[in-house]
Amino acid sequence: MIESAIRFVYLSLSIASVYILVAIGFSIAYGSLKFVNMAHGALYLLGAYIGLFIAFEPTVGGTLGNYSPIGLALGFTAAIVLVPIILFGIGVVMERLIAKPFYERDMLDQLLVTFGILIIIQELVAVLVGRGGLSYARPDWATGAVSVSGIVSASRWRLIVIALTALFLILLYAFYKYTDFGLAVRAGTEDAEMVEMLGIKISRPFALIFAIGAGYAGLAGILGGSIFTVQPEIGLDILIPALLVVVMGGVGSITGTILAGLLVGATFTATASVYPEMATASIFLLAIIVLSIKPSGLFGTDEVVA
Amino acid sequence: MSQETVSEQVDEAPLFSWESWDRIKYSEGFVFAATTAFVLLWSWLFSRAPITSELGGYHSLATTMLIWGIFALGFNLLLGQTGLLSFGHAMFWGGGGYAAAIFAIHISGDPILVLVVGTLFTLLLAVVTGVIALRLHAVYFAIITLAMGQLLYYLATSPLRPITGGRNGLTGVQIEQLFGIAYLQEPLPGVFGELWVNYEYLFIALVFVLVVVFVNRVRKSPYGLIFRAIRENERRTSFVGLNVWRYKFAAFLMSAGIAGLAGSLYTIESQFAGLSSLYWFTSGEVVIMSVLGGVGSLFGPVLGAILYLYFEGVVDGVAIIGRYWLLMLAVVFTAIVWAYPDGIWGMIKSGGAKVRAKLET
């Protein structure tokens, strides 16, 4: 009994981790900047591939195939440290070049243009490295099983994924709660105009939060890439469940996103053990039910919906 | 009597005037005539005419383009007219396609009945999904329709495998004679064969013309005007005293019904219903087509469908640049949303207006 309970919790958490890390960036960008960024999926995709090239020397197809094996082969730890930083930089650039011209435009325009950019990046990656799947070779310290509380054994890597996610979520929460930047972002999410009138230049904290979201998506790319296969379509594949997590939690709410992510993880794991064929479908069913009951999401406010 | 006075006026008037052209151009009769002329010439122009067929078109692609054109017309009734972006229209296209295939396999292969059943099933599906999805707005609406479409996709993948055939799809769809006269695949004789190849093309062309006339009627009617009012400002429309939800629901049903009709046609044409028709990228494709062609116009989405399928079906096979087809389309799509929301049709229109302004002065 305890054994299966622990196994359930641990599997749910490991599935929820990746979704939450992707969803959180989307959610804060949408909540604070009122910017719908479908290209967020591309950040996950870039994170997975950049991580791959930093950590190993993979043999790839596509245009780069002529030079393969290609990569820095710095090892997995280096990738986990470097990728979020690189993606943070990409996030800064993205906010300036893509998001900024669209702040004043219709949300549907934002959605469509970033959807186009997501496909552009996906296709560019496919041209560069080919459409074949690649996979992460996990280092020794991350493979094998570990025994949880002496009762069940669990894959060590999945535990590391959970731990890393928890750590980064706590960092984000602390940033939100205890720094001046975080205070400005929270105030700006409530009423950006008012914050501007108080003399705070809100665009900078917003850009920072956007870039942090990008960094988190990159981290998710590495963690997810090491669990699933890496191929050009993963950006789109991860985006859909992440979007569900965002709207279920309520746009802009960190607590909501985390809760919705856990809910999705638990639903998936529960269905997978009872009726495996319905496992993926159950996530979508869950989203439809939650949104039918509460159209603005669990922690959503009605203002954001407009 | 009146006949004479009309002809007298024509005699006095110059042979061609912009005013009379405008009058003709915006009449519904002209749209009907132009669409008919278009479909009658389209297959020949695209795949067999002396110069234009050098572009690499072929008949089955011309047919597919018309079917997707119907799909895009239906989709645009929702996005272009009412301003609702559905990211789950694959569920109607694929749902209609599956319903048509199942009906054809188990009950009757009569093409008209197959179309009717496919469309009715889609309408039923739209009633259920519309009631839930239309409570949400803008981005939420896009995401919940996406979720519904994916739910259907995964349901068709494995839990419903006995009915849908899972990953293999439904093959062996047998379509019977049209009105008991001729099989759709039967070739047409002589010059008709040269123009339209077989009965199937004429059948699809007829549906295409009917859908264009219907959509145009909706666009021009006071009812359709309310759709546009909702797109511009939902709140104000409701303040006028109109039941916004009811109009949105009606637009959703019409849009879904046309998508289902197109999906059923696709099943008839390909004699197959497959999982990819339900996959969310199909919804993405119809979004790309409509926006590419121009959501504000009647024919924009059709133009978008033709362009998209041309890239997918012909450019894809061209050496070297072929494998960049989706990349090229995505770049054009992004550029259009970014800088020219009226789409390619709007571009042509404003180009034409400039030429005309020069001619008139």
Automatic annotation (TrEMBL), chain A:
The keyword Cell membrane is annotated on this UniProt entry: yes
One GO BP annotation of this record: amino acid transport
CDD domains, per the entry: TM_PBP1_LivH_like
Single GO MF annotation: transmembrane transporter activity
InterPro entries: ABC_transp_permease, BCAA_transport_permease
Keywords, sorted A to Z: Amino-acid transport, Cell membrane, Membrane, Transmembrane, Transmembrane helix, Transport
Localization terms from the record: Cell membrane
One matching Pfam family: BPD_transp_2
The organism's place on the tree of life at top rank: Archaea
TM helices/strands, residue ranges: 6-30, 42-64, 70-90, 111-137, 157-176, 206-228, 240-262, 274-293
Main subcellular location of this protein, as a coarse class: membrane
Annotated GO CC locations: plasma membrane
Membrane topology term: Multi-pass membrane protein
Keyword Transmembrane applies: yes
Family to which this protein belongs: Belongs to the binding-protein-dependent transport system permease family. LivHM subfamily.
Protein name stated in the entry: Branched-chain amino acid ABC transporter permease
Biological source species: Natrarchaeobius halalkaliphilus
From TrEMBL, chain B:
Subcellular location: Cell membrane
Keyword annotations of the record: Cell membrane, Membrane, Transmembrane, Transmembrane helix
Organism: Natrarchaeobius halalkaliphilus
Bilayer disposition of the protein: Multi-pass membrane protein
Keyword Secreted on entry: no
Gene Ontology terms, MF aspect: branched-chain amino acid transmembrane transporter activity
Top-level taxon of origin: Archaea
Gene Ontology, cellular component aspect: plasma membrane
InterPro entries: ABC_transp_permease (IPR001851), LivM-like (IPR043428)
Transmembrane segments: 29-46, 58-78, 90-107, 113-134, 139-156, 201-218, 245-266, 286-311, 323-340
Official protein name in the record: Branched-chain amino acid ABC transporter permease
